[in-house]
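Batch 3, record 17
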Amino acid sequence: MTELEAGRAQGLAPVRGGSVLQRYRDVLIALVAFAVLASVPLLTGSKALLDFVIRCSAYGLFATSLNLLVGYTGLTSFGHGMFFGLGAYSFGLIMQKLGVPIPVAFVATLAITALVAAAIGAICVRLKEIYFAFVTLAFQMLIHSTILSWASFTGGDQGLRGGIPRPVFLGIDLANHVHLYIASCALLILGLLGMRQIAQSPFGYTLRMIRDNAARASFLGIDVWRAKLTVFVLAALFAAMGGMVMALFVSGAYPEFAYWTISGEGIFINMLGGVSTFLGPMVGTVLLLLLNDTVTRFTEYHGIVLGVVILFFALGLRKGLLDFVAEWFSQRRDAGEGR
Amino acid sequence: MTRTRTPGISRRSTLALMGAGAMTFAAPWVARAQAKTIKIGMPTILSGRVAQLGTSSRNAVMLEVEKVNVAGGLAGRQIEMVIRDSKGQPQEAARVARELVNTDGCELLIDAEASSGAFAVHEVARDLGVFCIHTNSETSSLTADPKQHIPNAFRTARQGVHDSIIGGSYAAAIAKTKGLKKWATCSPDYAYGRDTTAEFTLYLKRFAPEVEIISESWPKLFQPDYTEVVTKILQAKPQALYSCLWGGDLTSYIDQANIYAMFGQMEVFAVNMADYTALTVVKNLPKGIHSGNRYIKTFPTTPENAAWGDAYKAKYNEYPTNWSWENATAIMLMAEASKKANSADGKKIAEALKGLTIKCPFGADGTVTMRGDDHTLVGYAIGWGTTIPQEPYVPEVKAGDWKTIFELEAEWKKSKGYT
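Prediction for the assembled complex:
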């Protein structure tokens, strides 16, 4: 055993032990969060609140999956929205053309996304930094253009028309607003829990090491390319889940879902919420949607307001909200210990 | 020192009682005042490149709503418009439409979205069962395709296939008299551009079979530079050119093609030219461009239409757009339908609206009809004419024949498998 390997083994041991404990803690938190969310329709009749949470689920899954790449692996993807769009379109098309039960379409969509992500990822993850960002953007535009020009299949720029059929399965009727809400919450919680497990697993720590020093990781015998490709595909799967929730919400799929602006929103959400904590993107999602919904109620000059907020976070805080809060707490704790 | 409570009714409970009493008396009044107004939600595009779609739709709607409110509102209820920006994103359009109904309490919807946004709002209308009039989407399938049909949604926008039938027959007549056989097309590269061009050439060739398309150009939507397109067309040396570019794209195209003196070398048919958004913006409007009418206050040549155009200009200091008349018509139809049903209830208005014919400044014969079987507007003024560089821009418009439209539309529907 080399010195480095020994060090690595030592370093990992407590992490593994901790993660078992954490795994149960995370599951517990997830269960409580789901229970709280699921009880909302019992407490309030506000359909707008349910709509809001459904959209938070879609964007939250998407933004958190992007953070697996940006925050954990250091891969700044500008094209992550393609998997959001791909999820929405695959799911919508399968439901419209094949009329299979929803869970089948769900699994099939994940399978399609995995295949496409593996192919695109195999090319992209070889590249670093700005090159990676731009090639992912290029693939996104490719998928977007394909959706636009393959009008006979995808409906072109008019989107998938005629609504997505939502047959009842296992007593769940997604055409019912409350059922759709519960299903979205379940997907969100399951998705977040899944991503949390990935982030806290040894694989997750490998990703952090690749982010901090890919050369060192490679010297330690880690197949960097394979690890990056794996997380690229995993992140794509969760983004596709977000896309499916969105497709169910609007009962359709539109080329805008696969446009670069969706990727941009994902990046913006991460900036807003913070990338150094797991729940940062979720906080960012809630913030952005809340901001968007309230500002558009009052003015059509929402661009100015959002721009000012971006400036505040980029120049003022210089980090996301949850990063800021986490730092503030650790500073207070340090100060407390120092006393 | 301790505080003692005085016996009897304290000041606080007196205030509380007074408040409760006031509420008891006021509540019915407040409720009645709320029931008096009816909220109509309107998702549209108010920001970005096509913000004019939203602003000119909003202007027209407000102009008409004022009139309806002065006349007593919808079945005695004053209209309150809630107009919100969707940024041209379908998922936002869906969200805003749901929010308008679920949170703001809008009982009726005017969907002033373009293309994909209209389909997104259509799904919301399907889900919520709320009354909805699409005012800006010209995509034929929105109402022609029976899969899209729902009892609570209507359309007051013109329809792509109507324009193509009239455009094709008009262009064919000129092609025959002037011997125009070689044609080129230049249209924006998205569904509207592709479909409209295909339908136009279909009917052009039907009426003038000797016509041949020798060159096709598909510039991107919102493309800033048209040099390559213009030179490509000039090299192909066609005798005539068809284009369904619109708004800023059309004006940039004309300004750039003018540099190459393109308009002297061929007959140009630009279906979207005769709209003030294009007519008033082009630097040197060439004489003799053939165009379909979008909105122009000189066609139909009635005092009602001219008065409407002038009233709009007086209020907003700009001329109405094609979107303006489509939205104004929606309010006119809703007001009439509500009068007929004697109710502001969405279901009753929808029932009354089916097959309803109303007097309207934008009608070909002074009336327009909401066709009962596919819930789309027919009988609106539709025609083609040629431009001159100054007002009235398109002095003479040759009116299209609605009988031809109905015949060919039925045939087209059959060919698409819609009937």
